[in-house]
Design a protein that fits this description.
37% of the residues lie in helices and 20% in strands. Helix 7 packs across helix 9. It is of the alpha/beta class and 255 residues long. It has two domains: 136 residues, 3-Layer(aba) Sandwich (Rossmann fold), CATH 3.40.50; 104 residues, Winged helix-like DNA-binding domain superfamily/Winged helix DNA-binding domain (Arc Repressor Mutant, subunit A, Orthogonal Bundle), CATH 1.10.10.10. Strands 2-1-3-4-5 form a five-stranded parallel beta sheet, sandwiched between helices. The protein has a five-stranded antiparallel beta sheet with strand order 9-8-7-6-12. Strands 10-11 form a two-stranded antiparallel ribbon. The relative contact order is 0.12.
């Protein structure tokens, strides 16, 4: 398998080039339908029927978004997602596709680091909108001449909005997925304020494409574990307020 060894070569999408989408689905008819639709809307689509075919494409191409079906012959989509999202290197965004009603697949996929989820059969227009949202979120902000770089400092940590990087008090860069970055930014921009799921989703509109409010819990749990692993008790920067939501407890300074 080659996904993990190739992920380090991925870079943030350049808004001037054609977005590249890897579409992994063993349903040839659906695969062709979605590919035709996305290509008509300015995207390059690389189709694959299974894990080995996807690995071969990832070994040769820079991919911005992977649209990944859960039910695949051989290695399933969840296992492929785990390989794509399990390393520290930059990697493409991942949208999972799963049969309607399969909540377990949806939750597990998000816990593994998928950026978004859509039930099958996926509406091509909705899929296009989700892909575009992920591309916008992955692109660096426009830099005005003479404008200072924007970032935040809290409890010794630094969150750079321009570089899209999180740095520990020890100066170590903590790799974040697009969803994790957007979620952390939302809380950092609203410190010491209790935010429930609906409020988080409202604030993240345009930054994230979470398909349902439970995704907030899953992504926040993953983010807290990642921060704690990087620097001791950093996961305690967040506190759960029973029946209310979550609060980012640290003071924040804009830099």
């Amino acid at each position: 398998m080659t996904v993990m060894t190739q992920a380090k070569d991925f870079v943030a999408p350049d808004a001037k080039r054609t977005p590249v989408v890897l579409l992994v689905d063993d349903d040839e008819t659906l695969r062709q339908l979605i590919a035709d639709f996305l290509e008509k809307h300015g995207m390059e689509v690389l189709p694959a029927a299974d894990g080995p075919a996807a690995d071969a494409i990832l070994a040769r191409h820079t991919v911005d978004v992977v649209v990944l079906d859960v039910m695949l012959p051989g290695e399933d989509g969840l296992s492929i997602c785990r390989r794509l999202t399990g390393g520290d290197e930059a990697r493409p965004a991942v949208i999972m596709l799963s049969a309607a009603g399969e909540d377990t697949d949806r939750i597990v996929g998000l816990e593994l680091g998928a950026d978004d989820y859509l039930p099958k059969p996926a509406n091509p227009r909705e899929l296009l909108a989700r892909i575009r949202a992920l591309m916008r979120r992955s692109a660096p902000p426009a830099l005005e001449t003479g404008a200072p770089l924007i970032g935040y400092e809290f409890s010794g940590w630094t969150l750079s909005i321009w570089a899209r990087e999180l740095q520990t008090p020890d100066g170590v860069i903590v790799p974040l997925t697009g969803s994790e970055f957007a979620l952390l930014r939302t809380f950092v921009e609203h410190p010491r304020e209790v935010l429930n799921r609906d409020r988080v989703l409202q604030l993240m509109r345009g930054k994230s494409t979470f398909a349902f409010d439970r995704a907030v819990d899953l992504q926040l749990s993953r983010l807290r574990r990642k921060l704690t692993a990087a620097h001791g008790e950093a996961g305690n920067l967040f506190r759960t307020v029973r029946n209310e939501g979550y609060i980012f407890v640290s003071a924040v300074r804009r830099v």
